[in-house]
UniProtKB/TrEMBL annotation:
Residues 58-229 form the IclR-ED domain. One of its GO terms (biological process) is negative regulation of DNA-templated transcription. It comes from the Bacteria. This is IclR family transcriptional regulator. Residues 1-57 form the HTH iclR-type domain. Keywords: DNA-binding, Transcription, Transcription regulation.
Amino acid sequence: MRTLDIIEFVVARTEPVQAQEVANALGIPMSSMSYLLSTLCDRNYLVRDGRRYSPGPGLLRLRTPEASLSLEDRFAPMLRAVRTELNETVSLFGLDGWDARVLVTEASGQSLRYAIDPGERRPLHALAGGKALLASLPDDELARYFRESVRERFTGRTLVDEEELRAEIAMVRSTGFAEAREESQSGICSLARPIVLPGQPICSVSIAVPSVRYTDQLRASAKALLRHW
């Protein structure tokens, strides 16, 4: 299982990774990691360049044509890695009408956590993953969204006004991140990043954290992980 986790993690990344990074993300001791990486390189499933590892030519024997991979298959390994690293709920959202629909979710193992299941839908304006999707829309589609959508205010911080939402979307396009913060201590905060791949539907990845654990340190760690997407 660890060997498969390593292969899936390295393949999902867009740049070479160091052994320590893989070990941290997957929760594998370095003593075991060194042996597994050495074996994978010997079999050409990975290649090593200095301290960094990339997918190797041996994977071509197993390769599924990229066009046949669903978004769920493509990103599930990376979601698991982020969940392992932070132990917070990580979800992949896709656009479904004017809602964000959960494509994949990896739930935190902590008793106080954000719970959402694949297939569930949420209004785009009400969560970070949804605002990341809005930021990915072309301007004509965004204009249509504001004409057609009904935006309910769920908390005092929910943005429903078009001018305020457009300012937020502009910030997401500039920084690459969307954020949603709840006012109550029992609420949920989330950080998300838009994902736009050639020939694929737009999507976003979101990390959701109870307010009591959403510290500056955790926020910085979540941003660092999402920058790889």
